[in-house]
Specification:
The protein has 79 residues and is an alpha+beta fold. It is built from two helices and five strands; from the N terminus they run βαβββαβ. One of its GO terms (molecular function) is transition metal ion binding.
Length: 79
């Protein structure tokens, strides 16, 4: 399943990232934040309007926000 489909509060592990589907600068930013295979992640909040953007994620000890389009490129498995 992709990260955008993960239920809020569910712990998961990133198993793959579709880097070619992301712009180069977006991929660099996500990697710098620690988004990569093997990282533990959980969706902790979603935006409240139509697109439900952005998603707030718990990634290790950090909370980061990403767009749904980026979350769709991240494949996860429930922990």
């Amino acid at each position: 399943m992709t990260l955008d489909a993960l239920e809020s509060g569910t712990a998961a592990r990133i198993v793959a990232v579709d880097w070619p589907s992301l712009a180069e600068d977006e991929g660099k930013r996500l990697r710098a934040l620690g988004v990569d295979e093997g990282a533990d992640v959980a969706v902790i909040h979603r935006g409240v309007f139509g697109t439900r953007d952005p998603l707030a994620l718990r990634l290790g000890n950090m909370t980061i926000a990403i767009r749904r389009v980026h979350a769709k490129a991240i494949e996860v498995e429930a922990a």
